[in-house]
């Protein structure tokens, strides 16, 4: 089972592709929500207020079956801008990402083929100038136990080299751990079978 995904860590530098006097500025951003997308688009429209089109595509979701996307032509001929941009998101296999290509019209019509090439190239350039990293898809668990059980819980955590992300160690203790998806079932069973210890999954 695949338990990794690729994304970018920060906004890409601005890139520029030119074709017959038209300018295409490309940008890539790490995003997780449509609100973030809308804020970025608003900022770019202020920054490029004399531009003609602000075309974009985004994709959210770490796991393929949960992924959703949108592609927007913003007034360009149908499927000549948004989908070529989205095609590059698929080609680079990245997610939780927004790519925007801003066009200044140069007075010469490029035709649908020319537009597809320009938007695709600007998106590709933005991705090539981004730092793409691979992350693991993790599950979060909370382990609950009384203080006297601390030693055996910590022993398992140490043996399995588990990532503790938070802990509340009082009379009744709670430790929050992050586990790679492929190892999650095994870790869950280990704690589930430990006497006087309760483990439950948290929604990511």
UniProtKB/TrEMBL annotation:
GO CC, one annotated term: cytoplasm
GO biological process: regulation of translational initiation
PANTHER family: IMPACT FAMILY MEMBER YIGZ, IMPACT-RELATED
Family: Belongs to the IMPACT family.
Name this protein carries in UniProt: Protein co-occurring with transport systems
Annotated organism of origin: Christiangramia flava JLT2011
